[in-house]
UniProtKB/TrEMBL annotation:
Keyword match Transmembrane: yes
Source organism (scientific name): Paracoccus mangrovi
Family in the record: Belongs to the YciB family.
HAMAP family in UniProt: YciB
Name of the gene this protein is made from: yciB
Membrane topology (UniProt): Multi-pass membrane protein
Keyword Acyltransferase: no
Name recorded for this polypeptide: Inner membrane-spanning protein YciB
Function: Plays a role in cell envelope biogenesis, maintenance of cell envelope integrity and membrane homeostasis.
Length: 201
């Protein structure tokens, strides 16, 4: 199997998070406006979504070209952004794009859970080279991630259905990434306890 090529971490982060930051900036700029495009009025949210779709397509393709590989989560996210973002723009309805994180998290919770039932730890297959751990560590981490994804799906539904559009954009842009960071930091003891020695150690 071909090893992914390494690129500058700042460039990688920019390509991964740049489209989301762009979405946030455009939304904040147009959030109280109606923009006329081809004879149809669109809210700032739809305008931001319209800009976000091609930018994330380009950034994902650049990541693939530079590294030679894409993670399954990146591929699924790209497909759902195009589909649900496209539906939001086409039908002029923000609800489709707001549902996207819920669907993404449910898909990954289901895939990881199904893998555990089949005694195949797909999280380990994806991350083992970057985070060597014993099988029991991967099993515990996978169970925790299934619960995390289910919790995030529920949280996303609550925020977009019960709070303002601005609250959802802030939650999507800053809240969800922060929760993921906190999750992995909180599991640092697990990584230490079940760490496997790297090659040559």
């Amino acid at each position: 199997m071909t090893e992914p090529r390494k690129i500058n971490p700042w460039l990688s982060a920019g390509l991964e998070f740049g489209p989301l930051i762009l979405f946030f900036v455009i939304f904040r700029w147009f959030k109280d406006q109606q923009v006329m495009i081809a004879g149809t009025e669109y809210s700032g949210f739809i305008v931001a979504t319209l800009a976000f779709i091609p930018v994330i397509v380009i950034s994902t393709l650049l990541l693939w070209k530079l590294t030679g590989k894409l993670a399954p989560m990146q591929i699924v996210t790209l497909v759902l952004v195009v589909v649900f973002g496209g539906l939001s723009v086409w039908l002029n309805d923000p609800a489709f794009f707001k549902m996207k994180p819920t669907i993404i998290y449910l898909i990954f919770a289901a895939l990881l859970g199904f893998g555990l039932i089949r005694d195949r730890n797909w999280l380990e297959l994806v991350m083992a080279k970057k985070l060597p751990m014993q099988p029991e560590g991967w099993r515990i981490l996978t169970i925790r991630m299934v619960l995390l994804f289910l919790g995030l799906a529920i949280a996303n539904e609550i925020v977009w259905r019960m709070m303002s559009e601005t609250a959802w954009v802030n939650f999507k842009t800053f809240g969800l990434p922060a929760i993921m960071v906190v999750f992995f930091v909180a599991n640092s003891k697990l990584f230490e306890r079940y760490a496997s020695p790297r090659d040559g150690e």
